[in-house]
UniProtKB/TrEMBL annotation:
GO molecular function: pyridoxal phosphate binding; transaminase activity
InterPro entries, A to Z: Aminotrans_3, PyrdxlP-dep_Trfase, PyrdxlP-dep_Trfase_major
Full protein name: Aminotransferase class III-fold pyridoxal phosphate-dependent enzyme
Gene3D superfamilies xref list: Type I PLP-dependent aspartate aminotransferase-like (Major domain)
Lineage: Archaea, Methanobacteriati, Methanobacteriota, Stenosarchaea group, Halobacteria
UniProt KW keywords: Aminotransferase, Transferase
Pfam families noted in UniProt: Aminotran_3
Organism the protein comes from: Natrinema altunense
Length: 50
């Protein structure tokens, strides 16, 4: 949830956010917003549309 909230803060304070920064091999959470930023294993995406 921390990643999701950080994304919301960025979206609220940027004119037009286009990019996100993530670290390869890191786990950023299972929320839809966090999953949209990373290329994690398919098991982390289970239940979410692609």
């Amino acid at each position: 949830e921390a990643v999701e909230n950080a994304m919301k803060i960025c979206y609220d304070n940027c004119e037009q956010p286009k990019y996100g920064l993530t670290f390869e091999g890191a786990f950023h959470g299972r929320t839809l917003g966090a999953l949209s930023l990373n290329r994690s294993k398919s098991v982390h995406r289970r239940g979410f549309p692609e």
